[in-house]
Amino acid sequence: MNYICGAFKVTDKKQIAKDIYDMRIHTPEVANIASAGQFIHIKADGFFLRRPISICEIYKSDGEIRIVFEIRGKGTREIAKIEIGEDIDIMAPLGNGFDILASGSKAILIGGGVGTPPMLELSRIYGENSHAIIGFRTADKVMLSYDFAKNGSTVQVCTEDGTTGHHGFVTEPLKEYLKQENPNIIYACGPRPMLAAVIDIAKEYGIRCQVSLEERMGCGVGACLGCACRTVKDGEEHLTHVCKDGPVYESDEVIL
Ligand SMILES: Cc1cc2nc3c(=O)[nH]c(=O)nc-3n(C[C@H](O)[C@H](O)[C@H](O)COP(=O)(O)OP(=O)(O)OC[C@H]3O[C@@H](n4cnc5c(N)ncnc54)[C@H](O)[C@@H]3O)c2cc1C
Ligand code: FES
Asked: What topology is assigned to 98-212 in CATH?
C-alpha cells in the first residue's frame, strides 16, 4: 500500500449544511496518487485512533484534495475545529478506489448521507454520462447537489421525511430510472440497508455494481482487524479488511 503520512495545510473550510463541513487540503503528494473511492485517515486532537473520511474531490493540478464530513461524535467535532491555514495530520490515500469504465460508459451514483462525498469525484469523471441519486434524512442535511450538477450529472435528491426532493429512499427513483435507462455500472456508498437494497436492484436488472463500505476503523492499514468484513469469492468465504481490501468491493462479493 502506497500512502503518505504527514501534516498538510487546510486551504479552505466552510460549513455547507447542518454539522457538515467542507475542507480543502494542500497535499500535492496525495493528490498526485489518489483515486476516486479512496479515503484519508485523520488524526483528531486528543484521540489515539484516527477517523476515516472519503476523498470527495481530487484537484491534481492544484495539488489539493477535498473532504466533506459530518460531525458525528467527539473525533469529527475536533477535526471540524481545524481552521484555514492550520495543519491537518493525515495518512492518505488509503484503500482501493472504484474501477473506472471506458470513456462514454454510463454510471449511476448512489449516495446515502455521508456516503455521498465519494460519489462526487466519480461525477467529475463521468460528467453528463452520470446520474446521481442522493438521499438524506432531512433537508438541512442535504449536501453537494449543486456540485454534482456542476459536473454535468443529472441529480435527484431524496429525503426520508420529504422536506425536500423525493419523499423516501434512493431505491425508488433508482428503480424508476432503470425502467428507462440501461447504465453500465452502479456505484453506491451509504448505510448498509441502503447498500443491500441497491445490490438487489442491480442484480434484478443485471447491472454491474460496486459498493463502498463505511466500516468502523482502527489502524486503517490492515494491521488491527478492526474493520473485518466477510466476503465471498469463487464460492468461498473470506474475512477481508475494509481498510486494505476495500472500502470498494464488487457487489456480489460482500456479505452485508
Ligand atoms: C472508508 C470510510 C469513509 C468515510 N467517509 C466519510 C465521509 O466522507 N464523510 C463523513 O462524514 N463520514 C465518513 N465516514 C464515517 C466517519 O469515519 C465517522 O463518522 C467518524 O469516524 C466518526 O467519528 P467520531 O469520533 O466523530 O464519532 P464516534 O464518537 O466514534 O461515533 C459517533 C457515532 O457515529 C457512529 N460511527 C462511527 N464510525 C462510523 C462509521 N465508520 N460508519 C458508521 N457509523 C459510524 C458511531 O456508531 C456513533 O453512533 C467514513 C468512514 C469510512 C470507514
Ligand atoms: S482498520 Fe485496522 S485492519 Fe482495518
From this structure: Rossmann fold (3.40.50)
Using most ligand atoms within 8 A of CB, pick from 53, 58, 82, 221 the residue to mutate for ligand 1: 53
* pTM (two decimals): 0.95
Indicate which atom in ligand 1 lies nearest the CA of residue 67.
Answer: 8
Residue 81 CB neighbour total at 10 angstroms: 12
Query: Domain 215-256 falls in which CATH fold?
Result: Dihydroorotate dehydrogenase B (pyrk subunit); domain 3 (2.10.240)
Compute the distance from residue 26 Cα to the ligand 2 centre, in Å. Answer: 26
**CA nearest ligand 1 atom 2, residue:** 214
Q: Residue ranges per domain, the chain?
A: 4-94, 98-212, 215-256
16 pocket-lining for ligand 2 (C-beta < 6 Å) = no
Residue 160 burial by Cβ neighbours in a 10 Å radius (0-12, 13-18, 19+): middle
pLDDT in tens, 70-127: 999 999 999 999 999 999 999 999 999 999 999 999 999 999 999 999 999 999 999 9
Task: Note the maximum CA span of the chain.
Answer: 51
Q: What is the CATH number assigned to the segment(s) 4-94?
A: 2.40.30.10
